[in-house]
Design a protein that fits this description.
The protein contains 25 helices and ten strands. With 716 residues, it is mostly helical. The chain has five domains: 122 residues, no CATH class; 124 residues, Voltage-gated potassium channels. Chain C (Four Helix Bundle (Hemerythrin (Met), subunit A), Up-down Bundle), CATH 1.20.120; 126 residues, Helix Hairpins (Orthogonal Bundle); 118 residues, no CATH class; 120 residues, no CATH class. A hairpin with a 2-residue loop joins strand 8 and strand 9.
Length: 716
């Protein structure tokens, strides 16, 4: 712009001035007075001599621009850059300098506006993305951020499940969800909207009163919409249909239309009937937006853009309000001119806000600026600015140019950047996104199969059913990915929330020990977005898609989950071994009244002086004296290898009561039906076969503290 302004000063400086009398062409002849004719309008006084008055001749520049100085030239080109008033500048150049000089202004418009201004907009959008961090992300990371944005917007399908029985309800349900049925209703809505092409008012004085035909057509289409509601109520039930916001809107509009039909037959005031009728037709038109996927996607884009640009809109309003107060102080007393009049001025704050909002759209902002730059003798000067009706040249230039740059070139372009970003979330090719719309729709359908009450939450125990029913990219192979399925289910248990009372479940009992399963009274639930985000994490390569901080947190979480699932798997295997050995023991000891405890240990070595910590205790007691075990006489403290091996049954060995007394305080505690037995089970009371016995994690602690020895004690 500076280059073009310098060129304009050298070529057009001092050469654009002309006499206000078109008959005078030189400055020397531009003196005296002349009669100025005035036309009131183009349609009056065409054949008569128009009225007029005497005007003194003056040799002046064009009213709104000149190229005499570099400042005036840059101001004129800045106005041209906004595509306001450039035709007037071109006309003056062609009239006073020749047709060839039109190339100057055309070249500036092409380079400055169509290229330079577009580059400026690109810089604003690039800076927005860079400050947001999107410009520094890789392709996979950007796709992951887009996916998270789309997952936050995704909602469960507010659609009741199809009736299982193949009866009349199922047929009506299929009819309500059939594409042809939906297209028929949409066509009826469009046909009814076309009725607004004619004005709804009575014409009693005319021979043909078309308003009645419009009303009767609307009544017939109203019965079609009532039929739609009836079909949905039969197929989905009333509560199932009302679970959708779109159906709620349709029911509300249909009820109002039924009331309007009754009012038409009862009321005698036709004007009110016609007025309310076309308003209901307009309300019905908005219902078609939710019936078509593309329209619904466009509305979602607009809604998301408004939500994300809320703070920018608020900042624009605050900035506009500040400029309005400043405009009242600076230009509140400026006299009316070409564009400042009783409808657009700065006399009050509300009027100033309307003028600035008009400037935001670019409507003649430069002409309003020049009206605020009026100087004597066209105004009345005074000592104080609040006493004069003149303007302020410097203040007007700074005020209007700064406001237009901030609002039109920065704020509005930020809004454009947000809208484009949100538009790309919904209109991206499937090969450029991590999860396609079909995958998300499949997850929504699968979720609806489990969430039958449409609450948006399900029990943690139902998560496995959801994962097994998924297809597409979210599909989990139940045979190959069995461990992954366990880990995903445990992640949801860890994330689960209590539905009644209590804190968030973290997978531990009151002692801080891990639980293999939840207690019966812990009703935990997870939301739609919890399961969706978890499946999204598991379906992508987190090392490529996630940023560093999020990657570290996610890897830590997955490591904890894998470790806890491994512990639970080992613990459950041990419990199964215990139950299986107890069942075998019970079948061979029918003469015993009670079952003896079983503790998992390993196979004994040939050296009978050591009892390994992983030896399994058999419930069958060996015959003979107790002197073979600790607690007997001194000679019998050395057990015979043959006798010990005889009764071990390949590592199965059962301690007598004397062993338990000798090793009191060394055996692990056992949790039986919620009762903790310290130093082993109570052999005197015993256990019944039907009692659910599980080993607590004290076994792990006892296992680690296995480095003790004493007289008549085995070194474990």
């Amino acid at each position: 712009m500076f280059v073009f302004a310098s060129f304009g000063v050298q070529v057009y400086g001092g050469k654009l001035a002309a006499c206000n009398d078109d008959s005078i062409t030189t400055e020397a002849e531009c003196s005296g007075k002349f009669y100025q004719q005035v036309w009131v309008s183009n349609s009056l006084n065409m054949d008569l001599n128009p009225s007029g008055f005497m005007v003194p001749r003056a040799w002046t520049n064009p009213r709104n621009f000149n190229f005499d100085t570099i400042g005036s030239a840059m101001l004129a080109l800045f106005e041209v850059l906004s595509l306001k008033g450039w035709v007037e500048v071109r006309h003056v150049l062609v009239t006073r300098m020749g047709a060839i000089h039109a190339i100057y202004i055309h070249l500036f418009v092409f380079l400055g506006c169509m290229m330079g201004l577009t580059l400026f907009i690109g810089v604003v959008i690039a800076n927005y993305n860079e400050n947001k961090g999107a410009a520094l992300l890789t392709v996979d990371q950007r796709r992951w951020e887009d996916l998270k944005s789309r997952l936050k917007i995704a909602q469960p399908l507010h659609l009741p499940p199809r009736p299982l029985e193949n009866d009349i309800r199922a047929k009506f349900y299929d009819l309500a969800e059939h594409p042809y049925f939906k297209w028929t209703i949409a066509s009826c809505v469009m046909i009814r909207s076309l009725l607004l092409s004619w004005k709804w008012e009575s014409h009693h004085n005319q021979e043909f009163d078309y308003a009645k035909y419009l009303v009767w057509s609307s009544i017939c289409l109203t019965f079609v919409f009532v039929l739609e509601i009836v079909v949905k109520v039969i197929g989905m039930t009333f509560l199932g249909m009302m679970s959708s916001w779109r159906n709620r809107y349709d029911v509300l509009v249909t009820m109002l239309e039924i009331g309007w039909v009754f009012m038409y037959f009862i009321s005698s005031d036709e004007e009110s009937v016609y007025s309310s009728g076309w308003i209901l037709v307009a309300f019905r038109f908005f219902s078609i937006c939710g019936k078509h996927a593309t329209l619904k996607m466009l509305l979602t884009t607009v809604a998301v853009s408004v939500y994300r640009s809320f703070f920018i809109i608020v900042a624009m309003f605050i900035l506009l309000l500040c400029y309005a107060y400043a405009g009242v102080v600076l230009f509140g007393t400026v006299k009316y001119g070409e564009n400042i009049d009783r409808h657009a001025n700065f006399s009050t704050v509300p009027l100033a806000v309307t003028v600035l909002f008009r400037i935001v759209t670019g409507e003649d902002w430069n002409k309003i600026m020049h009206d605020c730059m009026i100087l004597p003798p066209r105004c009345t000067p005074a000592d104080h600015y609040w006493e004069t009706d003149c303007g302020n040249v410097l203040a007007a230039r700074m005020y209007f140019c700064s406001f237009y740059i901030i609002i039109a070139y920065i704020m509005l372009n930020l809004l454009v950047a947000i809208i484009v970003e949100n538009f790309s979330l919904f209109y991206t090719m499937d090969e450029d996104i991590l999860l396609s719309y079909n995958d998300l729709h499949m997850f929504q359908v699968t979720w609806n199969m489990i969430d039958v009450k449409r609450k948006g939450t399900i029990d943690v125990r139902s998560v496995e059913s959801v994962l097994k029913l998924l297809n597409g990219r979210l599909e989990i192979n139940k045979e190959k990915d069995h461990l992954l399925l366990k880990q995903m289910c445990y992640e949801m248990e860890k994330l689960g929330r209590r539905s009644t009372t209590g804190n968030r479940f973290n997978g531990t009992n009151s002692n801080g020990n891990g639980l293999g399963c939840r207690q019966a009274d812990e009703a935990l639930y997870v939301t739609f977005h919890d399961v969706l985000m978890m499946t999204a994490y598991r379906s992508v390569d987190i090392r490529k898609s996630l940023q560093l901080e999020e990657l570290l947190m996610r890897e830590k979480l997955e490591f904890e989950i894998e470790e806890e699932v491994a512990k639970q798997t080992i613990r459950r295997w041990l419990e199964r071994c215990i139950r299986r050995k107890r069942a075998q023991t019970h079948s061979t000891t029918d003469n015993h009244e009670h079952l003896q405890p079983v503790i998992v240990t390993s196979t004994l070595e040939n050296d009978s002086s050591e009892i390994p910590a992983n030896a399994c205790f058999s419930s069958q007691r060996p015959k003979g004296k107790d002197s073979e075990y600790p607690g007997g006489n001194e000679e019998s403290n050395k057990p015979k290898n043959s006798e010990v091996g005889k009764h071990r049954r390949h590592g199965l060995w059962k301690p007598p009561p004397s062993f338990c007394k000798a090793y009191a305080g060394c055996l692990p505690s056992v949790m039986v039906d919620g009762i903790k037995y310290e130093n082993g089970l109570n052999y005197d009371n015993g256990l019944r076969e039907d009692e659910a016995t599980t080993l607590s994690t004290d076994l792990d602690r006892w296992w680690s503290d296995s480095n003790f020895s004493a007289d008549n004690h085995y070194s474990l």
